[in-house]
ParB-like N-terminal domain-containing protein (Methylocystis rosea), 282 residues
Amino acid sequence: MSAQTIALSQIDASDRLRPVDQLTVDAYAAIAEQRLNEGLSPLIQPIIVRPTGVGYKLISGAHRLEVLRAIGRKDLIVGDDVVIRAESDDGARDSEIFENLADAGLTALDRAIFLAEAKRRYDAKRGEARGRKRKDQQIQFDKIMPETGIILSERFSKHAAERVGLSDSKIREAVHIAKALDPLVIPQLRGTMIEDNQNELKQLAELDGGSQRKAVAAIRGGEVKTVAQARVAIGVDKPKTDDLQARIYADLLDRWSKASNKTKRQFMADVGLVYAEKDEKA
């Protein structure tokens, strides 16, 4: 009995939250080729799709799908290359979000985007439940975090923290970053050193959209390496001066205030001056 297959061309992988990284595809394609040479299935974990009536919609595994395409796989073996699972549009999006959030290789930028979408969907579902006035569903109201002013459900952040393995505060921060980043900036962040640095992304998100675009342009152009440096380069912050003489002067004043009268007299004599003593202990 021959194995069931579906054509790769029947799979729709559009409308994904996370773009495919070609370098990742190339690396995994080499591994897939090696597995084939050893008589194994090219993928360690199959992709997951759902039937749509006219074909299939990808649920999870966009990079793996491109790996199969890269190695010339046209017909996918059900069970080895692909798993078919019946899911609604809503359920498929939830699966995409949380299966990606479980990926250890997810960048800080993509993690923030997935968490923000998960939070948006959570709020929408909770709103629907409120509208139905279901008594069997515990609803916790959003609270305003005083340190940020962000309205965020504690229940969501705790649930997400358990799923992702981050603290509540990091979850809240990531959601805020995704909401505050200019949509035009997000594609430009990919491939930069700050893409996987949540602290850098947080600093960038504090800027307005125009300043964000200028800052990322400066980083991509090699003019600067960090957001702090970019803020100076685009004129948002003034450069910090390191005046050696000013530091020496401040140090002298500090030491003078701690010196005894005897030490002060000796110092003044050494520089050819006379110390006018005050009523202080020698």
Remarks:
- Residues 104-180 form one domain.
- The mean pLDDT is 84.
- The longest strand covers residues 47-51.
- The chain has twelve helices and eight strands.
